[in-house]
Design brief:
750 residues, alpha/beta, 7-stranded parallel beta sheet, 6-stranded parallel beta sheet, 35 helices, 14% strand, globular, disordered C terminus, DNA-binding
DNA sequence: TCCGCGCGTATTTTT
DNA sequence: TACGCGCGGA
């Protein structure tokens, strides 16, 4: 059993303790994946049928990686392990067993966009105020309920929920929830949360089914246990209740998905539910330098809610953490890019040894620009997924509708695409009629003469005939041939082809790329089922993170840019955690309560612990956000790091003069904050009530800011020694340009 | 029904 | 900024 060699004692324990409940508390960098991999290999090596193993991971990527690693140890058998995300595994089971709860195997999976769109239509139909009942608010409320296994019936019968909603002036959420659920069901569709919720229902109401899977999954493993919600926890508990061979691996310090219903409470419940539980702590960090581990520990120790553990390392001390202060987001980008460039030169690093981590996707821009300018290759992970692009969603909607004629959201997307002269009025009418007559959308469509009549009926009739041919294609042909036929005959491909704009060209190529992906799916010998339905199943649960994993063939040497959330589970030699500013990180929306702040702190902990050798933290003293410049304070998290781990590196310019104060411009920009909207609209500057003439600011050396105009940029008309001088300052680069101005000033004095 | 314009407003993380 | 929505004209 050579795979046991090289493991430390707790790791070895975690691998060989196979029978009975086990909880592995795995600190960052403690070799968790290795342990999980060997554990599964160990089971199979000792005669356990891979088919009896269920391994639940957080991302598809994690599952695939683990499968590959297990394959290296035990070979082909690894293919038969049931390994995947909660959502994909239970979607698979629901495909098989869904008929018992009223779904067919072709049910659609609504993504968040579909769900919100459905909520939007319901709010409209109920004539509710869509400002009050914003789709995102309603969605998160419903989602939260489902993750706690609260059905709409309970929601509506329990006065607590209603009282809560009423306190926010939204008493109708329960009603929307009910209609939303009914509409999903009618559409033969489930949203993400339903995949878990309905699995719970299935196992609760159909003991024979539960029994079948309880006996099938003799060994259950859950990775990233700290990120599971109640709904997921209950599923695993049920599944493991016969054999009790359940092993969970997690780190409470890395729980960063509470916003999605993840509950650290699960760890505590786990101890309560399994009195014979064995707990193993993996505390030795193999990844990072002493400095980084120490910094991470010092930060996380500020949290009250945590399990005690002592992460340590025998690695070398390594470099101090560098703290970079920049004056603007643009400068931050340049400084980081410069730093990467220098480190590459000095230490012969590859691009791929660097990662830039940020709190929000929108922050990637300044780094992209700076890296591009320096000719450093980079890849941005996350953001808008390929499968979320409009044209891709459009074609997929056609494919979905060909298979599931009741898919309301797919229907709404494609019915008038390309234009068929069927407008919003008709679409709304169809939906309303379907609901009033208690028939499906498809019934209304195919019987349009009866239900609608008139001119629209002809168009609808043609459409339903078209869909029927697609249905036949989907049934008789393989996924690729069917998709190609649909893309062509729907007119979608033609319309995109005729759009010769740059975006249009890109969209056409994207659709081609989707078709290629379907072709690959069909050609892949590992896929037995080559139907369109099978492809859609694969695709509906893919995320942005999975895409980069699949592009593995042409791995380019690139700096990685991504959010901290996406970085979980990854490691890089050099990590930059950027935008370390109060309100940005921790995010201003998150610091309402202690627990929210603590989640942000865990996020910071995750960021720090991605680094192996060198960690750099940066922040800007002013930042361009949402079309305006904002003064920024350094993040409180910076003060929480053990000061012995940090050394400062200032922007060279920033030292000489503070942008705002020195030039008096801070006031002006601040004043402008209060009148932002007006300014943007009228394109002229309107002083706010507290803007007194005395606020007119002297730049220096007789340059007087006489007049301010805000439009696309900030226009300063400067009067003084150089009477006619005007400086046009683009908002985006204001920080930088203002500095240039002050340089100019100095030169005058010379 | 469709299209374009202008306005207002939202800004987190992802299965 | 950038996106979505509503309104008005064709």
């Amino acid at each position: 059993m050579d795979y046991l060699e090289g493991l430390n004692e707790p790791q070895r324990q975690a691998v060989i303790f196979t029978d009975g409940p086990l909880m592995i508390i795995a600190g960052a960098g403690s070799g968790k994946t290795r342990v999980l991999t060997y554990r599964i290999a160990h089971l199979i090596y000792h005669g356990v049928d891979p088919y009896n193993i269920l391994a639940l991971t957080f991302t598809n990527k994690a599952a695939n990686e683990m499968r590959e690693r297990i394959e290296k140890v035990i070979g082909e058998d690894a293919k038969n392990i049931w390994m995947g995300t909660f959502h994909s595994i239970f979607a698979k089971i629901l495909r098989i067993e869904g008929d018992k709860i009223g779904y067919t195997r072709d049910f659609s999976i609504y993504d968040t966009e579909d769900s919100k769109s459905l909520i939007k239509s319901i709010v409209k139909e109920l004539n509710l105020d869509d400002k009050l009942y914003k789709a995102s608010t309603v969605y998160s409320r419903i989602s939260g309920a489902k993750n706690r296994l609260v059905s709409y019936r309970e929601y509506n019968s329990n006065p607590i929920y209603r009282a809560d909603d009423e306190s926010y002036q939204r008493p109708e959420i329960g009603r929307i929830y009910q209609i939303y659920q009914e509409r999903l069901f009618k559409a033969n569709a489930m949203d993400f949360d339903d995949l878990l919720f309905n699995t719970n229902v299935l196992f609760r109401d159909h003991l024979d089914v539960l029994n079948k899977y309880q006996h099938k999954f003799k060994y259950v493993m859950v990775d990233e246990f700290q990120d599971t919600n109640i709904s997921q926890y209950l599923i695993t508990r049920k599944l493991a209740s016969v054999y009790q061979n359940i092993a969970v691996v997690g780190d409470d310090a890395q729980s960063i998905y509470a916003f999605r219903g993840a509950d650290i409470q699960n760890i505590l419940n786990f101890e309560r539910d399994y009195p014979t539980l064995k707990t193993i702590r993996l505390e030795q960090n193999y990844r990072s330098t002493k400095t980084i581990v120490q910094a991470a520990n010092s930060v996380i120790s500020k949290n009250q809610a945590q399990l005690k553990k002592n992460v340590w390392t025998s690695n070398e001390s390594g470099d101090l953490i560098e703290l970079v202060k920049a004056t603007s987001d643009a400068e931050e980008g340049r400084m980081i890019a410069q730093s990467i460039f220098e480190d590459k030169m000095q230490f012969k690093y590859k691009n791929a040894d660097f990662a830039i981590l940020y709190r929000t996707n929108a922050q990637s821009r300044s780094f992209e620009e700076a890296l591009r300018r320096m000719g450093i290759r980079y890849q941005v992970v996350g953001g808008l997924s390929f499968y979320q692009r409009r044209e891709i969603k459009d074609l997929i909607a056609y494919l979905r509708f060909a298979i599931n004629h009741n898919d309301e959201e797919a229907f709404k997307r494609i019915i008038n695409l390309p234009k068929r002269g069927i407008g919003d009025t008709t679409i709304a009418k169809i939906v309303v009629i379907a609901n009033e007559h208690k028939v499906s959308i498809w019934d209304v469509l195919s019987g349009s003469m009866k239900y609608i009549g008139g001119r629209a009926a002809i168009a609808l009739d043609n459409f339903s005939m078209l869909i029927k041919t697609f249905e036949i294609a989907a049934k008789q042909k393989n996924a690729y041939d069917a998709a190609l036929e649909i893309a062509k005959n729907s007119g979608l491909l033609k319309e995109l082809y005729e759009d010769k704009s740059i975006e249009g060209l890109a969209r056409y190529e994207n659709v081609q790329e989707l078709l290629n992906a379907i072709k690959e799916f069909v050609d892949n010998p590992e896929n037995e089922d080559k139907t369109l339905g099978a492809f859609l199943q694969e695709v509906s649960l893919l995320t942005t993170l999975d895409e980069t994993a699949e592009e593995g063939e042409d791995v380019k040497d690139a700096v990685t840019l991504m959010t901290i959330h996406s970085a979980k589970g990854l490691e890089f030699k050099n990590v930059f955690v950027v935008g370390m500013e109060e309100d940005l990180f921790p995010s201003q929306m998150m610091i309402g309560s202690r627990s929210e702040l603590e989640e942000e702190r865990r996020l910071f902990y995750v960021a720090i612990t991605r680094a192996e050798k060198k960690l750099t933290l940066s922040y800007a003293s002013s930042r361009y956000r949402f079309g305006r410049i904002k003064d920024c304070e350094p993040s409180r998290f910076l003060d929480e790091i053990d000061p012995r781990c940090v050394k400062q590196k200032n922007a060279s310019i920033k030292n000489s003069f503070g942008v705002g104060e020195e030039l008096g411009l801070k006031n002006l920009i601040k004043t402008n904050h209060t009148t932002q909207q007006t300014v943007a609209k009228k394109q002229t500057y309107k002083p706010s009530p507290d803007f007194k003439p005395s606020d007119t600011t002297y730049l220096a050396a007789g340059m007087k800011v006489e007049h301010l105009k805000f439009g696309y940029g900030l226009v300063l008309e400067v009067q003084g020694e150089e009477k006619d001088r005007k400086a046009r300052i683009n908002f985006e680069e204001a920080g930088e340009k203002l500095l240039l101005l002050s340089f100019a000033k100095l030169k005058v004095h010379d």
